[in-house]
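Students often ask why we bother encoding 3D structure as a string. The short answer is that it lets us treat folding as translation between two languages. Here is a chain of 81 residues written in the first language.
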Amino acid sequence: MSSKTTATSTNTVQTPENENSPVTSIVLFVVMMALFLGAIYSLSFLTLGNPWPMAVCLVLFALAFWIPQTILGRSDSAGEH
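And here it is in the second language, the structure alphabet:
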């Protein structure tokens, strides 16, 4: 029952495993990993005279974690049984 949609007499409950297709999950993973690796790569340009690579690193790193947790997060999980 963990990866199927179950129908009750009044409503349909969808389990978390059915929310994204595997292709969508892989694409999202690749995009977020690219942001994370871009943050790490930007540190290779960091010098004492140029603080902008650190700023880019912080922004990309924050986006790599903020996007999946807030925008792509499950907002309808409060009604699950």
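Translate back mentally: The mean pLDDT is 80. Keep this in mind for the problem set.
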